[in-house]
Amino acid sequence: MSTVEQQSRHPHQLQFPQQPPGPGTDPVVLLLVGIVVVLVLGAACYLCVVHRSLAAPISAVGGVASALAAAFGVALALRRR
Q1: Were both Cys, which of 21, 48, 51, 72 would link to 55 (CB 3.0–4.6 Å)?
Q2: pLDDT digit string (tens) for 16-68?
Q3: Which class for 56: exposed (0-12), middle (13-18), buried (19 or more C-beta within 10 A)?
């Protein structure tokens, strides 16, 4: 049955096209990202404790990485609007 036939039978009902559900984040991907983040932070902390000379370079890289991650998160949030 076509849309015209449906509207002629029920003129007061509006027909809206079905929209597919929006893209969602897969829980497995979130779990893997969380595990990787914990492992990387753990490795960085271990290197800072065991090798004191690496503490300054690792903290510098961590500071830059956190600023880049924040900028990337803001860009993604603004893009989804």
Answers
A1: 48
A2: 667 665 566 788 888 998 899 899 989 988 998 999 999 999 999 989 999 99
A3: exposed
Q: 10 Å Cβ neighbour count for 35?
A: 10
Asked whether the whole model's pTM tops 0.90, one would answer no
Angle at 51 between CA 46 and CA 56, to 5 degrees: 90
Amino acid at site 57? P
Paired tokens of 58: 């690792």
Q: Is there a contact between 62 and 44 (Cβ–Cβ < 8 Å)?
A: yes
> Greatest CA span in the chain, whole angstroms?
80
